[in-house]
Write a structure and sequence with these properties.
The chain is α+β, with helices and mostly antiparallel strands and 860 residues long. The chain contains 25 helices and 35 strands.
């Protein structure tokens, strides 16, 4: 069917057709604009929620780490105290060492105390000097209240309170199974001010907030702070928050929250693992959507401007599409530029996405991304690890692990893996996580512990200061010389407090500028001792810089050279006197020119090399040292000839003697600054090394009897277990019977003499190679190694019983005691603790059977 337009129809078309077409076009354009606005609104809102959730996750991991560290310390203290019952743990010098050993991990966020039956909180301020001087204590009031339990086996979590004026603390309490001495519980106080400072670093600005809320509604922390909020119960004002506190995690939006400002906000909340605490992170809705509002206004303005042209609308849509692609590309670039490996794994365990850092850390190619990591594990554990990983990616729980991987080139790396489940509609669809190479971090931590032990034992003065000159560390030798207590803070001290004015002037005008310019300054300065008397020091100042070359901090190593300084000043009257003094020094001194030829060597050098001075002069270092020793020192020699000052240790073997030397290579410059060689100084530290080994051995002996103490016994047991000498290993646990009555009747001096006599009899009853130990009180142990058969241990036990039952003649007294013995023979690759536990069990059976006898496990 067809139709025709009449003239009137034509007029109406011309009159309304254009308007109708424009109306249709505008309707289409504005319809697309409204659809685009709604889509952008939802997408940006989702992105804001995800970003808020990521910040929440980071804060939860950070805060849970602090609380887990505190809980770990509490359990460690509880185990330590319970093991010493019924003795008073606060009087045990080992408590101070235990607290000091654990200080490194708490980073000053956690303080440990002990709650006594009298209601006081006691802290340990410093260690006693020996076993007769217990640790010093400090008592605190009021005692914090802790009404809420964190979960089965976890500490009790309390409300914030002012531990010291102006400083808020969050208490975690772990009651003892039963009071031990004065102590009925151990307490960890988390420094809330520092914890909130960490939260502040991750808070979304400008109007974001971070709050920590206990499951019963008590607000534990909040940044930025709101007056009067911390310590109050949120449920009193916001009953609806009870739902949030009952959930494990979530993100929502509302006008009332812990932010307390009545504005519409996005909220992310998550419960901390193992603790009845939820983390709330909020961001103002208007702040989160600010870019959306701006885009909407721009789009509306552009749409109004191009309403008369379809091509203009197309241009706007293309522009918006380009911006979306750019943002997606930027996010992808940020992921690829991250130094931390990122991945997503499906429920089948295979990787569906990895960034460049993930491939780089594990040495994989892109086509190996799906399961290439599995081939980097040892073949014997791959199947087990793969099965575990399949369970992980299907579980709705976070995962963390550390694993050693062997890369294609043979290099081994230690990686830390962290992942969290991806949950869609209540179903786990995989895991997303990170992979980080922590090999160097683990090695650095081990090296740092070693270096700290060296600093604590050296007689040299070691001091560190920040770039402003404020001291951050002084080793024990420096503290003793300056008259500063071992536990006294040093953060308020600087060079002005420990050195005279002339040294301070040189520091500012000469020493610090040269150290900053060249990395190190070596020379001599005058310092003050505890009575402010000046004494000279050899002085090394090292300027440490960060990765971009900015000054970070200073390290100073000083040695008292009072005697050497006086001798050198007297020797400066003439060259002959100077050479005489150099020859009289115990240190090895030599000078090498640019061609590596000796210019000078003192008498100690002659004795060291066994060569007369005439045979040394003008000869090269290779000729004097020999090829092997020269090659070992070649790198240090070249660095010294390049102008670098070096201090290092080396071992030298001349003839049959092996010596430990501390070497210093100092650049030798002419008056115009030209490098002309270097000066070598070597200190023989062989006796120091031997003395250091001797002192270590003394820490393992019982001072009363000369037998091994508990530490020495555990070391000996560990050595026997790790390096068996052949044959069977047996352990005898021995208790003296009726020893307490000897002490009660005749006094402790008689008891001590009896213990010494018994140890002598024990040593006579065993072989010289067997280990005899006094574990404490009247408890002894004997390690028998290399036994042909288990019956040999029973023969030794009979000798022990006979030695204990024979009368002890002490002065005019004749004392009679006895002994009970438990015997355990090591089974296969059994560990030391298991062997001790079985021997203790046999000792218990011997006592139950009437004492004065031994018990051993049945053969087979």
């Amino acid at each position: 069917m067809s139709s025709r337009l009449t003239p009137s129809d034509t007029d109406r078309w011309h009159r309304h057709g254009a308007a109708l077409a424009v109306a249709v076009l505008l309707a289409l354009m504005w319809g697309l604009l409204l659809w685009f606005s709604a889509t952008q609104h939802r997408r940006l809102l989702n992105e804001s929620e995800r970003a808020l959730d990521l910040v929440n996750r980071a804060l939860v991991e950070q805060t849970a780490g602090v609380l887990h560290h505190a809980a770990h310390d509490l359990r460690r203290l509880e185990a330590w105290i319970s093991a010493r019952a019924p003795a008073d743990p606060l009087a045990d010098p080992g408590l101070s060492r235990l607290l000091r050993d654990g200080d490194g991990d708490r980073s000053h966020l956690v303080a440990l105390r002990f709650l006594t039956r009298s209601g006081e909180a006691v802290s340990i301020t410093h260690a006693g000097s020996d076993a007769n001087h217990p640790p010093a204590r400090q008592r605190w009031t009021p005692r914090p209240t802790v009404p809420l339990h964190a979960g089965a086996g976890a500490p009790l979590l309390g409300e914030p309170y002012e531990d010291t004026p102006g400083r808020l603390a969050l208490p975690l309490l772990l009651p003892l199974p039963q009071p031990v001495g004065e102590v009925e519980a151990v307490l960890a106080l988390v420094d809330l001010d520092r914890l909130m400072a960490l939260h502040e670093n991750l808070r979304l600005r400008p109007a974001g907030s971070v709050a920590l809320v206990r499951s019963d509604g008590v607000v534990l922390s909040r940044v930025p702070p709101l007056p009067g909020l911390i310590g109050t119960n949120l449920l009193d004002r916001l009953p609806g928050a009870r739902w949030h506190l009952s959930q494990a995690e979530g993100v929502d939006m509302g006008s009332r929250s812990v932010a307390e400002d009545e504005q519409m906000r996005l909220r992310a909340f998550r419960r901390l693992p193992d603790f009845p605490v939820s983390m709330f992170v909020t961001q103002g809705y208007d702040d989160a959507m600010a870019s959306y509002y701006e885009r909407r206004r721009v789009a509306a303005a552009i749409a109004a401007a191009i309403s008369l042209a379809v091509i203009a609308l197309t241009s706007v849509l293309l522009h918006a599409q380009h911006r979306a692609r750019t943002r997606q590309a930027e996010l992808a670039a940020v992921s690829d530029a991250s130094p931390i490996g990122m991945f997503r794994a499906g429920t089948d365990g295979l990787m569906t996405y990895v960034n460049d850092a993930y491939l780089r850390i594990q040495g994989l190619e892109a086509h190996e991304a799906a399961d290439g990591w599995l081939r980097l594990l040892r073949a014997d554990v791959r199947e087990h690890v793969w099965a575990d990983w399949r369970r992980v990616v299907n579980a709705c729980a976070p995962f963390s692990a550390e694993r050693w991987l062997r890369l294609a080139g043979g290099r081994s790396v230690l990686v830390a893996v962290h992942s969290n489940p991806v949950v869609v509609d209540g179903r786990v669809v995989g895991h997303v996580g990170t992979v980080e190479d922590i090999t160097e971090q683990a090695r650095a931590e081990k090296a740092l512990r070693t270096l700290a032990a060296i600093f604590d034992t050296t007689t040299d003065f070691v001091v560190q200061a920040d770039r402003e000159g404020r001291m951050t560390y002084m080793n024990p030798a420096a503290r003793r010389r300056a008259g500063i207590a071992d536990d006294a803070p040093v953060g308020h001290l600087s060079i002005e407090h420990v050195a005279p004015a002339e040294t301070v002037r040189r520091y500012r005008e000469e020493i610090v500028p040269q150290a900053v310019a060249h990395g190190v300054w070596i020379g001599e300065t005058m310092q003050w001792d505890a009575q402010r008397r000046e004494f000279p020091c050899s002085h090394i100042l090292i300027a440490h810089k960060d990765a971009v070359g900015h000054l970070d901090y200073f390290s100073t190593i000083m040695r008292d050279i009072s005697a050497d300084k006086a001798a050198r000043e007297a020797a400066q009257r003439s060259e002959a006197t100077m050479r005489s003094v150099a020859d009289s020094l115990p240190a090895i001194v030599f000078v090498v020119d640019r061609e590596q030829r000796y210019r000078y060597a003192n008498a100690a050098f002659e004795a060291w090399r066994g060569l007369p001075r005439a045979a040394i002069g003008d000869r090269t270092m290779r000729e004097v040292l020999g090829d092997a020793e020269y090659e070992a020192a070649c790198g240090s020699i070249e660095r010294a000839l390049d102008g670098e000052a070096l201090v290092f240790e080396r071992t030298s073997e001349t003839g049959a003697a092996r010596r430990h030397l501390q070497m210093s290579y100092l650049p030798l410059r002419l008056a115009d600054g030209t490098l002309d060689g270097f000066i070598g100084v070597a200190q023989d530290i062989t006796e120091h090394k031997v003395e250091q080994a001797r002192l270590l051995e003394l820490t393992r002996l019982d001072p009363l009897t000369g037998a091994l103490n508990r530490a020495g016994f555990e070391h000996a047991l560990d050595e026997h277990v790790r390096r068996p000498r052949g044959g069977q290993l047996a352990l005898l646990c021995i208790d003296l019977d009726h020893f307490k009555s000897v002490n009660d009747r005749h006094g402790h001096p008689v008891g001590d003499e009896l213990l010494k006599l018994f140890v002598r009899r024990l040593r006579n009853a065993v072989r010289p190679t067997d280990a005899v130990a006094r574990l404490g009180g009247d408890e002894f142990a004997v390690l028998l190694d290399g036994l042909r058969e288990a019956a040999n241990a029973e023969q030794v036990a009979e000798k022990v019983l006979a030695a204990a039952e024979a009368p002890f003649r002490i002065d005019a007294l004749e004392v009679q005691v006895g002994a009970s013995v438990g015997i355990a023979v090591r089974h296969g690759v059994e560990g030391g603790p298991a062997l001790v536990e079985r021997a203790d069990g046999m000792l218990y059976l011997a006592k139950q059977a009437g004492r004065g006898r031994y018990r051993a496990e049945a053969a087979g």
